[in-house]
Amino acid sequence: MATDRPRRRAVLDALRAATGPLGVTDIAERLGVHPNTARFHLDALTTEGTVERTVEQPSGPGRPRTVYAPRPGMDRGGARGYRLLARILLSRLASDGPDARASAAQAGREWGRYLVERPAPSSGGVTGEEAAGRLTALLDDLDFAPEPSGDVIRLRHCPFLELAEEFGPLVCDVHLGLMQGALTELGAPLSADRLEPFAEPGACVARLRHA
Q1: Pfam families per the record (predicted)?
Q2: For 64-113, what is each residue's pLDDT tens digit?
Q3: Is 27 left (phi over 0), alpha (psi -120 to 50) or beta?
Q4: Does residue 61 sit in the same domain as residue 138?
């Protein structure tokens, strides 16, 4: 619940300020809350992966004590700014002038080769139909909503639509490079010849060509 967040942050801050792991009672005393309230937030932080829970063996008679400590590393909660990062990188690439589109396509080809599994040498390679099927499956995994039809694959969804509208050909060149790299890695007897952005209402069109 949103009302729990300030209290949960206070629990996490108390753990980070401590010189060692703390128990439920320690947290309750430091924050002036009921132990059940402290336990609730500690369990929630543990479930989120922000806090680690361990059992501390007593030095003498007595029951083991459950203690909590912040997980090493940066807090993994909060918002992400991946679209901003993409815009920063694309704007830098765009400043390369005439070389920008070639660089974008090359980056796509490298990732396309990385994202598919090369057939085993003993398999005898893939047919054009098999390669097209593997390419369609990859595009589906990447959320392009592909619709294959002969030597054409219609892409009904663009997972980078806002970036494509802002940076145009650069993003499309990455998409085309992905397809080209994947087909190269598969050793396919066909290639991705071109990508026509927004060629049809509600779809970009990728055209394949047999070698």
Answers
A1: HTH_IclR
A2: 889 999 988 766 666 788 999 999 999 999 999 889 999 999 999 999 99
A3: alpha
A4: no
